[in-house]
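Support reply, case 0932

Customer input (verbatim):
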Amino acid sequence: MTERLIPEFDAGRRAAFGRTPMTYAHRLLDTGLFGDDRLAAQLERHPAELFDINIFHYDADDQALLQTGTKGDRPGAALLEAVKAGRVWIQMRRIQDHWPELGAAMKRVFAELSEQVPGFRPVQVTGQLIPSAPQAKVPFHADPPGVTLFHLRGEKRIWIYPVDEAHMPSRSMENIVMEQQTEDLPYRREMDAAAEVFDLTPGMAVAWPLHAPHRIENLGSFNVSLSCDYQTWTSRITNGAHFANGVLRRWGAPVLPADRAPMAARAALWGASTALRRMGLVKTRLESYERAFELGDAPPPPDKGLIAPLAMR
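Our regenerated output:
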């Protein structure tokens, strides 16, 4: 019998998954996919248009500024060494479509989670493989889909914050799903008092409630994680409600924040959002950024191509 990739949950974890921040164990490392040779090969063959390559800078108030880069045409081993040596954070998007072995492992993982978590039936799962440098940090942000992150190499710390107006304002999520701002959110150090903090080592996974803001810091070692976005009907309906609320708010109509609305009201707003999207009433403000560097080059000047995501809000 093939050993499970997700060991059996106890009753507490079955009840907590997707509802409160929690960690759990995984056995993805047993697949043997995440050594340097396999990572270098994937870095080399992964489509350049599906790379996010960022260096984050932080001002005196810990607000993030970023520079984006390109993959270039260096061999995979050189790309991997460039990640290990710098402060870069890389995301290889839609990894399940371009690494079949990992895509198969992801299917197993989510089938096993669905067996264990009551009512958990994702209708879509998308993976991002994230190698990142020892000093890399990911700023305070929130994701529209559900997320669970499988940690594979190195050590990192994650802060997960409450889904409330103080940390995740409804208007900000409306703007995120309408593509009027990036996923980055305003951060203040005093917010950390409300966060749950987890130190992740290889073989650990972490999950959190839909739209929970979070931030991440690597702890001095090269890191690899697999971040899996998932959509359930509940998350699709909730995000559709946020979209509709964002449009209604523009029109001056009163709105009930989607996260607090009854499911029947969210469903009605989701139905409205499908029509509003087809009408093309909202144009994206997320445009292509200037690429400041090529991975493996010398670090770019700190002011070249510098982007302030919060300036888009």
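We compared this against your earlier run and they match. Two observations from our side: Residues 232-281 form one domain. The mean pLDDT is 92. Please reopen the case if you see a mismatch on your end.
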